[in-house]
Specification:
Elements (H helix, E strand, L loop, with lengths): L1 H7 L4 H8 L3 H10 L16 H13 L5 H12 L5 H8 L21 E14 L2 E12 L5 E6 L4 H15 L5 E4 L6 E4 L2 E4 L1 H10 L2 E4 L9 H19 L9 H16 L11 H9 L7 H6 L15 H5 L9 H7 L1
Parallel strand pairs: 1-4, 4-7
Antiparallel strand pairs: 1-2, 2-3, 5-6
Helix pairs in contact: 2-3
Length: 336
């Protein structure tokens, strides 16, 4: 119809062909017809018989999530259906009932309550004169969604603690609890179930926070840091490829790039869930954080290869009776 209207306004056949990106002969044929061409409805190949249709409706009523490939195989084997899978799929789509998904559940925490931490593998990047597998220790505040990133070349317990303390210092302090996964860096998996390692409990005691571990085989238990890990993979690494990297970069150089990316990209962003600008929300939450003790930062004498001191509690202090109470993770879950 638009073709005829433009023709009445003085458009030439060539102009109409260029505008609609079609052949001039097609334009001339449509104009001579006087009205839009009517295409007959093409009947589907191999339509379902009454028995086949009854079987499909019965199977979809019993199991709405059955795969179309399985249903097509049943129809061919038991009811003699001779159509292709794609022909079958076009006919079965209108018959499949719409699935009602449960609403998305998001767990929000108050400001200053929780920090989530996790490792993110970055792949091979230049470090010095070599290509090295790099990893990012990622922490994020549960309320304001403010992240902190520190880069390392390994994920040992010593490096994990040092990078984590640096991230907490970048965030401006420590929240009431620290949520991690059940990695061997933080937990021992023995006969009595997973237990926090003594070094991790010692460090949390010095920081003034409570260690927590996400529940096993439960989705979305530390989704905030997992979402940040995805952001690093899809945004930060692409952003990093466009930066001028030193000829022999160090871990400190990568830490500086991560901090720059957070300042330029993350802080001005408005978070979709909270609806607040991350930088403004962080400024409010930062006032509620407990600062990282100076003696804890001094004990972690990290350098460009991230080799900190592991024992944050002196052995002499343990001998004086200040033993660490190591409890099962189930007790923390019940208490919280």
């Amino acid at each position: 119809m638009e073709l005829h209207v433009l023709r009445q306004h003085g458009w030439s056949v060539s102009a109409l062909a260029r505008h609609f990106n079609i052949n001039r002969r097609t334009v001339s044929r449509e104009l001579e017809a006087g009205q839009p061409r009517q295409y007959p409805h093409r009947a589907p190949w191999h339509p379902f018989t009454a028995a086949q249709l009854a079987h499909i409706e019965r199977r979809l009523a019993v199991c709405p999530v059955i795969r179309s490939t399985d249903l097509h195989r049943e129809l061919c084997a038991g009811y003699g259906y001779a159509g292709s899978y794609w022909t079958f799929l076009r006919q079965v789509r209108p018959l499949r009932p719409a699935l009602v998904r449960e609403p998305e559940v998001r767990f929000e925490t108050l400001p200053g309550v929780q920090t989530q931490a996790d490792w993110k593998h970055l792949g091979r990047w230049p470090l010095g004169d070599d290509l090295v597998e790099l990893h990012a220790m990622v922490t994020i505040l549960g309320s304001s969604r403010m992240p902190a990133i520190r880069i390392a070349s390994s994920c040992t317990r010593e490096v994990s603690f040092e990078r984590l303390v640096r991230c907490l210092d970048d965030l401006g302090g420590v929240t009431r609890e620290l949520l991690t996964d059940r990695d061997t860096v933080f937990c021992n998996h023995g006969g009595q179930g997973p237990l926090f390692v003594p070094e991790w409990v010692d460090l949390c005691e010095l920081l003034g926070t409570v260690p927590r571990a996400c529940r096993p085989y439960r989705a979305k238990t530390k989704g905030k840091v997992e979402r940040e890990n995805r952001e690093i993979e899809e945004s930060f690494l692409c952003w990093l490829t466009g930066q001028v990297v030193p000829r022999r970069p160090t871990l400190a150089d990568y830490d500086a790039f991560a901090a720059q990316w957070i300042r330029e990209v993350i802080l001005p962003r408005r978070h979709r869930t909270t609806g607040r600008i991350i930088g403004e929300a962080w400024a409010e939450e930062r006032r509620l954080l407990m600062p990282v003790p100076a003696h804890v930062l001094e004990r972690f004498a990290g350098d460009d290869v991230a080799r900190p001191i592991l024992h944050v509690v002196d052995a002499a202090q343990r001998q004086l009776g200040d033993q660490v109470d190591v409890r099962p993770l189930s007790e923390y879950e019940v208490a919280l």
